[in-house]
Amino acid sequence: MNSTGDHRAAGLFTSEASAHHRRRRMVKDTLARYAVGFGGISVIIAIVLIFFYLLFVVLPLFQSAEVEKRASYTVPGGQQNETLYFAMEEQGEIGVRFTRSGEVIFFELASGQLISEETLPIPLGVEVTSFARGQMDQGLVALGLSNGQALILRHVYRVTYPDDKRQITPGIKFPLGETALQVASDEVALIQLAFQSNDEGTSIAAATDDGRLFLSAIITEESMFDDEPELEQINTELSHSDDAVLKLLMGQERQNLYVITREGELTQFDISDSEEPLQLQELNIAADGRRVSTVEFLTGTISLLVGYEDGYVSQWFPVRNDHDQKVMTRITF
Q: Which of 17, 65, 165, 312 could form a disulfide with 308 if both were Cys (CB 3.0 to 4.6 A apart)?
């Protein structure tokens, strides 16, 4: 009797434990099913959202470009002086204008309102005869003068936050001093100009009004007793054709100098040794008899983009020949 009762009690206990275990497992299975389903749906939604994001990013590539007029105003600083160059700071709020009279004019891009105006230290009776800019991120520009000198300056923008409000203050600095550098051996106008500057120094190339070509290398050393740096300058006259120079271009590494004449002759110099520049090659880039109207560097200052008077454009790139020498070659498309 007692044995039978014990077996019934054990069976009842086992049946209740099994039922409780099954209920817990069903709850877990239900939760897992919904969790897996929710995760799968979330993945699908994420993929769909990524697809729409990519579509949003790529779709404008297939649409026509649009130009919106934001503002219109008279030239800041007046129209009586010829404009040599326009630029703006990286925030797109302030613009700068360089004029042939040696004025640097800062203004608000949105309204054209004058912010400040500075007069460059150009000697009395001397005129600005040429202009060149360095790399865009450096803000460096150079002015060639009628007395054979060149003045290098940088337009800078100081950002401050008075009362937690951003304020941009433009200004001018002279990395090589406020005194213009003598590039030509005598007082003759510099009609074409090219320059580059880096941590190792500055190189200036200039074509003069009487048909000569000069190269000037400047090494800067900080002075312990003076605010202006100490300069070591080496001037060299380069030989080239008698044709009038249309454009001078210098690579950002201060190694290659390109001289382009109005007849389409391109001469490449290796100027890494400023005391003994080496002429590398000379070729004609007047494609099919076309007259060259302008030449500019592409990004990186390696390739040349040549424009012609009839609207034709060609690209030239240094390519190694069979003698392992880099030769400027026209790229055809």
A: 312
